[in-house]
Amino acid sequence: MINNRRHVSQKARQAVESAVAELGYVPNVAARSLASQRRGAVVLAISSDDPALFANLFFAEVITGVNAIVEETDLELLLILAAGERGRDRLTRILQSRGADGVMLLALRENDPLAKTEAGERF
Residue 84: its pLDDT value, please? Predict the structure, then answer.
């Protein structure tokens, strides 16, 4: 009923909605992802680990813009700074384990190693 199924009566729907409000029910993210086969997360992988990145107006606008769109959904935004091998390995592990529903790659240069990760080759 919480999922807005059509075959549920109005009386049952109201009873469930009342109980949800009264009990402060919050859906279990792990259970929901098991049932839906979705993780509820997207990755923004940036091919940089320079702290000056966050002072760069272009990157600041991209990050806040992506966040603004993601906030309109039930998705979580994972930010990965993947300039180094460890960051790229972490990104690969997340993607191989299906720990995210999507990935955005940012700041790619010609022959950037990030493009050779699973994310760059799959998308």
Answer: 86
